[in-house]
Specification:
The chain is an alpha+beta fold and 267 residues long. Helices cover 16% and strands 43% of the residues. The chain has 4 helices and 18 strands. It has an 8-stranded mixed sheet, with helices on one face. An 8-stranded mixed sheet has the order 12-13-14-11-15-18-17-16, with helices on one face. The protein has a two-stranded antiparallel sheet with strand order 1-10. A hairpin with a 7-residue loop joins strand 12 and strand 13. The chain is globular and about 45 Å long. This is VOC family protein.
């Protein structure tokens, strides 16, 4: 994680409509919906209410009454990776999905309407990393950031950045900014000069059991305390808490194996 948005202040930032290409929502599909709600509710203080059911049982996570993420239940016969998936905003999901296909990606689900909330598709880039596309109607996406328990950053972890960065640049209109260090294969994705996501090429260090994937970072008040609670709730530590240029960060997995990171902003 070499790029990050600035601190949003003690009360967070409430978002209106997200500009096209901006990560606007994160969603997790699991086998045990009730147990997963218990885990994240205890970890982040989330509460839950039902959401659109087009792809099966689905709930929206709320923090102080504002929506921050979604969790759905996988059908029993679907043995898909359990993973957090970022959704990137679009003014026209159908057109964006067509562009994904033309640029060598795959559209696995949709485009389809999610009741009155909006229109969506689930895609994968040419390297196989899964992401969503979201066209807003009633549901604007993540309503608040900048406070503990909210998404802080999304980063694609892949083999190398050059090819896949061109894919996202073409589909979503990002501007690229390469890392200053020649030893680091990292590209920041910017919109209107503002960093919105990143791509990290890790080569042979990419987990063989995972492949290229998007990683969601959630803000926490204390990274070490969060890691301790994650373990106590049945989760796992993949990389212990350590200091970085953007705060103290750890990579973890929930009880079903969904990977995510927690980050404590420097004060």
């Amino acid at each position: 994680m070499t790029e990050a948005r600035g601190s949003a202040g003690p009360n967070g930032v409430t978002h209106a409509r997200h500009a096209p290409g901006t990560p606007c929502w994160v969603s997790l599909m699991v086998h045990g919906l009730a147990a997963t709600q218990e885990f994240y509710g205890a970890l982040f203080g989330w509460e839950f209410r039902p959401g659109p059911q087009q792809l099966g049982p689905y709930v929206r996570a709320l923090l102080d009454g504002r929506e921050v993420a979604g969790i759905g239940q996988l059908p029993p016969d679907r043995h898909l990776p359990v993973a957090w998936t970022p959704y990137l905003a679009s003014n026209d999901v159908d057109l964006t999905a067509d562009t994904v296909r033309l640029c060598g990606g795959t559209v696995g689900v949709g485009p389809l309407d999610a009741a009155e909330a909006g229109r969506m598709a689930i895609c994968s880039d040419p390297s196989g990393a899964v992401f969503g596309i979201w066209q807003t109607a009633a549901h604007l996406g993540t309503a608040i950031t900048g406070v503990p328990g909210t998404p802080a950053w999304n980063e694609l972890v892949t083999f190398e950045t050059v090819t896949v960065a061109k894919f996202y640049e073409t589909v979503f209109g990002y501007e690229e900014e390469a890392a200053a260090s020649a030893d680091l294969d990292y590209v920041g994705l910017h919109l209107a000069g503002r960093p919105v996501a990143g791509i990290h090429g890790v080569g042979a260090a990419l987990p063989r059991d995972r492949g290229p994937h998007w990683m969601t970072y959630f803000e926490v008040a204390d990274a070490d305390d969060a890691v301790e609670r994650i373990v106590g709730l049945g989760g796992h530590v993949l990389r212990p808490a350590h200091d970085s240029a953007h705060g103290r960060v750890a990579t973890v997995a929930d009880p079903e194996g969904a990977r995510f990171s927690v980050i404590q902003n420097p004060r």
